[in-house]
Amino acid sequence: MKTDSLIYKFFQVLPSAVFALLGMKPPPGSSYTFTSLELKGHSLRIDGVLLPERAEDTVYFVEAQFRKDKTLYPRLFAEIMLYLHQFRRQGEETHWHAIALFPNTRADAGLPIQYQAFETQKQLSRVYLSEFQRQDITPFPLNILRLIEEPLKREDITKRVEPIVEDAQTYFPSEADHDPILQIVLNILIEKFPDIARKELETMMYTPTSKFFESRFYREIREEVLNEGIEKGIEKGIEKGIEKGIEKGESITIVRLAQQWHTQGRSVQEIADLLGCSPQEVRQLLNL
User: Fold this and answer.
1) What is the pLDDT averaged over residues 188-205?
2) In degrees rounded to 5, what are phi and psi of residue 173?
């Protein structure tokens, strides 16, 4: 998944993040949907548009650009004008605002003079993700966008992602709400570390304070282990095999996780904290 696609997916899951990007709050009583639109007859597509439910609210256009492109601004404003022509009734006033999102200033080819009036009139905002790195603490959910551009070493993944996971689970207690957010975080990590297996990255995302045993990832491993136990029970033709497979599944899951974390270089104490047991029990699991 390309970086710009990740960003559009991010705003689709968290439409309010567009306002956070601008340092403002959504208008009281407003309701927005982040989507893409096809422009008829021109083979053009607006990849990111935040549409209000109420006609009087502002329409926001988001263009993520991760390589220098001199055609960006002509294309962006042409798409906006075509949108106003095709989707808004003639004579109807429409407030709109464009956001050009770059990883850093080097990716911005510069705003041509014929479009500078839009910036002067505060209808255009240019945002650079690299600016987030100057902040000691980047608030949720912008800390997810910061993760895209910020340099990150393998050994720092857990420390860097921990606050994001905690924020997502705090702001959105329901798994149905926070799981799509954590999937975006995982996909960002996959893009940044293509040499690390997906499951290994997932284990790096969870910490003792992140409700690990309630996570989708833990349930996937548990289900995988339980299914193995059930199959072995059936193969042996033992009626109690399934029950034993389920019974042993929990402990096997714990062993697998402990082994993965140990391979990643986590200390015995860290693994004990994650599993909620003593260091001595971890050493027994790992045969240390």
Assistant:
1) 87
2) -60, -30
Architecture of domain 3-150: 3-Layer(aba) Sandwich (3.40)
Joined together, the tokens standing for residue 233 give: 């029970």
Task: Round to whole Å and give the CA distance between 217 and 206.
Answer: 9
Q: In what order do the strands lie in the sheet containing 96-102? A: 32-39, 44-52, 59-64, 96-102, 124-128
CA distance 175 to 163: 17
As given in the structure block, the two tokens for residue 241 are 């095999």
Q: Give 111's contacts (C-beta < 8 A, 6+ positions apart).
A: 73, 119, 124, 126
| Residue 42, number of CB atoms within 10 A of its CB | 11
How many CA atoms does the CB half-sphere of 35 hold within 13 Å? 8
125-166 pLDDT per residue, tens: 999 999 988 877 788 999 999 998 888 999 888 888 888 888
Q: Are 57 and 24 in contact (CB under 8 A)?
A: no
Asked if 17 contacts 38 with a C-beta cutoff of 8 angstroms, the reply is: no
What confidence tens digit (pLDDT) does each residue in 210-262 have? 555 555 555 555 565 555 544 444 344 434 443 444 344 455 556 767 777 77
Q: Domain ranges for the chain, please list them.
A: 3-150, 215-286
* pLDDT tens, position by position, 54-70: 989 999 999 999 999 99
